Request: fold
Amino acid sequence: MGFPTIYPTGTTVYDPEKCWNGYTVFQAKDVGVTVIDMNGNVVRQIKKMHGFPNKMLPGGSLIGSTGIRNKKFGYQDFIDLIQVDWEGRITWRFDQWEYIEDPGEESRWMARQHHDYQREGNPVGYFVPGMDPLVDKGNTLILVHKSTQNKKITDKLLCDDVIIEVDWEGNIIWEWICNEHFDEFKFSEEAKNTLYRNPNFHPEIGEGLADWMHINSMSTLGPNKWWEKGDKRFHPDNIIWDGRETNIIAITDKESGKIVWQVGPDYNESEALRKMGWIIGQHHAHMIPLGLPGEGNILVFDNGGWAGYGAPNPSSLNGTHNAKRDCSRVLEFDPITLEIVWKYTVEEAGFKPLVDNFKFYSGYISSAQRLPNGNTLITEGANGRFFEITPEHELVWEYISPFFDQQFDTNMAYRSYRYPYEYIPQLGLPKEKPIPRIDRSAFKVPGTKEEKPGNVMTLTSGSDFDDSPQDCVVDYSE
Reply:
């Protein structure tokens, strides 16, 4: 058994004086979009509104998805992306990417949205002072799927990633198609050979789809110091994204569509990359926006787990998922020098590396958000755990989702975001009740009888304790 069957849920640690207090939004398994206060009280929940991810807008509006395409024909394709106001009215909807005619299913337009989107006015989707997303107008960047073929990559049908921009009326005004830039991604010949044979192929989906890149986040860079210093790669409109299956983080030039900055897929390529270490299966790579501590640096949840294409090795006999690591990292690094300027790993969490790797590990999903006071909100998604830490790595808030998928017994959560209380003016300011750390040795399941132990054994030993009888004295007492 690798994980306890019973453990506390809800808010388990909370120091109001050290936290950046506000509302946290996430997707609750088997329920829907959920908003909680710092003490873990649910203040808003909309059932059947999915979160891939969920985001909040000023005034209490929420964005998310509804309906999912039959997985026999598509992979993680949501039917539409919607915006809902505080009264529950749908005030904006997009579903006009592709007209789908799946056998035995009702034909209809779909967004095929997955993993991310960004509303104009805010580059990253989480709270940035002075950069509120637009509520009743503006364009939206959306990450969508497209089924296509590219024989340079593989002879299989690609489940390709496309970034589109739509106006308020739903007109598509810009698009970027990932597979068309295959030659720019710096794959080695070994990686290309492996990718051709097994491009993350899902044979159970219809005739089979190859989710070869699996982009799981994308956002604009927004205003930044690098652009102000004259580095054209970092134009505020350019888009940073990451490919989970390839270990790539890249920036797409909005005007030309070309890749102008990239790390991965090979982290042995330079001394700076070797020093950084392999980023594997990452999520939520983005540039910290102007006005937040660490502005201009790249923040990413480096999952570890399994990803990449390359030469076969003892842990990957066919070269697929040839990079593996059994722990996660949150990295903040300089995009120019690639120097790590801040990190959170098993060691910063207070555990022993290697032997305690599992104590900070989410091999899939997850995210990290820089907060205005310099703290970082981390989603350890596989375990449904959200926590806030200070720059010195002190844990000041922790929440464990109590919402479980009954079929698979998981409380996994894709991503969470923290927003200020003012984003929901319909609610009064919640009471902030501190929750100190629990003494785990004294924490018992209700109803368990606490008894005084009897027949206590105390071992005393000589200076060089070993298995020899003369060095071990057993003292029994009550």
Remarks:
- Residues 44 and 212 are 37 Å apart (CA to CA).
- DSSP finds three helices and 33 strands in the chain.
- The longest strand covers residues 140-148.
